[in-house]
Design goal:
The chain is an alpha+beta fold. It is built from three helices and six strands.
Length: 125
């Protein structure tokens, strides 16, 4: 599974692989805490704005219990799980964005971006 902090346009984004069994299990548990009911598609979700666009979780191998594509930003979760299905929007009731940013911070990937105000500080979320 790959986690990408979406912040740049034109240069590589901070990215890490989530392959630790315990971390994957925590991620799976977080997905079980998301609400089942989808929200109306938010008009100004910011998923395509310039600058920080949240965190993307890519699950190309289909790890059970985790959608294939997830983007989390400002309390919203965009899920694209099946190619023929459209996107679903859920509330980030499981603090996925904070969890992923914390993992990126622990790996030393975003400290400078936090200091520059380009990425939210997970400690302040």
């Amino acid at each position: 599974m790959r986690v990408v902090v979406e912040v740049f346009s034109g240069r590589p984004n901070p990215t890490f692989t989530l392959d630790d069994a315990a971390a994957i299990q925590r991620m799976r548990e977080a997905f079980t805490r998301l609400p089942a009911e989808a929200l109306e598609a938010p008009e100004a979700a910011g998923f395509s704005r310039l600058g920080y666009r949240g965190v993307v979780i890519e699950n190309p191998h289909g790890v059970a219990g985790i959608p294939r594509y997830v983007q989390v930003l400002d309390g919203l979760v965009l899920v694209r799980d099946e190619p023929e299905g459209g996107p679903r929007y859920l509330r980030d009731a499981a603090s996925l964005e904070k969890s992923c940013l914390t993992l990126a911070d622990e790996r030393g990937l975003i400290q400078e971006l936090i200091a520059a105000g380009l990425v939210p500080d997970p400690a302040a979320m």
